[in-house]
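Quick illustration, no need to memorize.
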Amino acid sequence: MSDNWIVGNLQAAFNTWNEKLAEIWQLITTTPEDFRGGTIWGTIVTINEAMEAIGYGLLVLFFAMSIFQSAVSFRDLKRPEFALRHFIRFLLAKVAVGSAMEVMNGIFSVCGGIVQTVMGGIGGMTAASVAVPQEIVEAVEGVGFLASIPLWLVSLLGSLFITVLSFILILTVYGRFFRLYLYTALAPLPLASFAGENTSFAGKTFLKSYIGVCLEGAVIVLACLIFSAYISTSAPVLDASLSVVTMSWQYIGETIFNMLVLVGLVKGAERVVKEMFGL
């Protein structure tokens, strides 16, 4: 890193961006069980087991509600097909509540396979990394003290924007990761709704939402792939005929715009999944 404060400030912001990109890649390839050594996952499993007991209580409640709402008269309760249909529904719902953890892990594994397939087309996030061009480094280092004052402002503003974008990017991905934990922890409660015909919509909505969260990983990886291809063809072009301040500001502005493209794609992953799959 250059000893020049302006160059060093910009490169520090770029390093933050590059580190967050690498962290995103690590998060996408990490399973909830392995994240942070599995400590958080152990807590989620404990909560899930506690929710399972409540889920069984809701199971009976939803089943009773379904029986009384669907039976027109007492005679319907005596019909074998009526009793069999509700018994099978109750049995399947009971299995779903008791195997909630396995159901969630199964869905995650299937969606994880899709993510791994998409990731096969990317070697990593190296192509999306940024650094201060040598031309700017040399130009800035050759500027005197008074002439460098505007460059301080340019570097401060640029570094601030880049740092903020970096944290918005990583927070979006972390948000998706922790939503996986929330869905898994509370899974027995919405799955219990399958015991009743009139309440099963809650379970269906829950599973569709969870599938959507899992598939967001594939959309995020695709966004990184698109961004890598975009940045390789849209890298800022330096014009040496301009003043150092103008050239630096132009480069930083175009770089920030390119970063906004990726941030927008990642933040829009949830909406893309919902629109694409109707989840």
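The radius of gyration is 27 Å.
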